[in-house]
Amino acid sequence: MPTSLPPHRVDYSPIVERPPIRWPGGARVALWISPNVEHYEYLPTFDGQRDPWPRMPYPDVREYSYCDYGNRVGFWRMLKSLDRHKIRCTASLNLAVLEHYPEVREAMMERDWEFMSHGVYNTRYLSSMSEEDERAFYRQCKDLLRRHTGKELKGMLGPAISGTDRTPDLMAEAGLIYHADWMHDDQPVPIRVKSGRLMSVPYSVETNDGVIFRSYGDGSQFTRICRDQFDRLYEEGAVSGRVMCIAIHPFLTGQPHRIRHLDSALDYIMSHDGVWQATAGEIAEYYIANCYDAAAAHAAGING
């Protein structure tokens, strides 16, 4: 019978046996907050694999306008909460936002947010791209970010979390250092690539409003899940540092009836000592400089 092999990109390594991670200042948890600042096309092109608006023929005004609420209203409501807690975010950014919503761009720039690519539009996917198209995609992302912000692109959460088997290699080739699509751990993990270095910075489908609010939960459950997640990671982080991501979408968490639950979660987490509130790029750079080699060597020893 055919066997299903694990992906060749990451070595298996039990978290209880790894070299310990020590975050800056002795922090137990590296916390990063990732607002998904997105732009969806009103009339997207169906690539034959994944339909952006599967509910009905385009335009799907209901779904388009629901998502667009985020940039019109939800982003600004969310921003007040993040400012109140002095959170410097890593925006998971559809880079077309920089052109279509200059006010949103300027608000993020004023706060010195970090930007990771979430594609150009959230209705265009990597999974249907050829190798050359995907290579050009990274050049486009880097050029858009540099032109509109002066910043250099360090990482990516794939557009609508899409990708190809060659995605890590092409990311590293383009000079990116972290990938957030890999959600298989509570610590960063080296990702094997043909050249250069690439690593995962743990994102989350658990402490993620897109999953909670669209699938099964309400605002109070979002707060409870974030608190419970933090409590366990904080306890475990006394032995070896952990990473916690809270992923939020302005059109979801930015709704009037939900925003207080983000406030509540951040009030609780940020009241603790030993929390390194960082960006994904800061976590990646620290890990590469201080932990990557030891982790890679340890995993190689286990996996031969």
* Second CATH tier, the architecture: Alpha-Beta Barrel
Radius of gyration: 19 Å
Number of strands: 9
Largest sheet: 5 strands, parallel
Written account of the structure:
With 304 residues, this protein is α/β, with parallel strands linked by helices. It has a single domain (29-47, 58-303), classed as Alpha-Beta Barrel (TIM Barrel), CATH 3.20.20. The chain is built from 11 helices and 9 strands. The two termini are 25 Å apart. The relative contact order is 0.20. The mean pLDDT is 96.
Topology:
Blueprint: E1 29-37, H1 61-84, E2 90-93, H2 97-100, H3 102-110, E3 114-117, H4 131-149, E4 155-156, H5 167-173, E5 178-179, E6 189-191, E7 198-200, H6 209-216, H7 219-236, E8 242-248, H8 250-253, H9 259-270, E9 275-277, H10 280-290, H11 292-303
Parallel strand pairs: 1-2, 1-8, 1-9, 2-3, 4-5, 5-7
Antiparallel strand pairs: 6-7
Features:
5-stranded parallel β-sheet; alpha/beta; 4-stranded mixed β-sheet; 12% strand; single chain; TIM Barrel; 304 residues
In brief:
42% of the residues lie in helices and 12% in strands. It has 304 residues and is an alpha/beta fold.
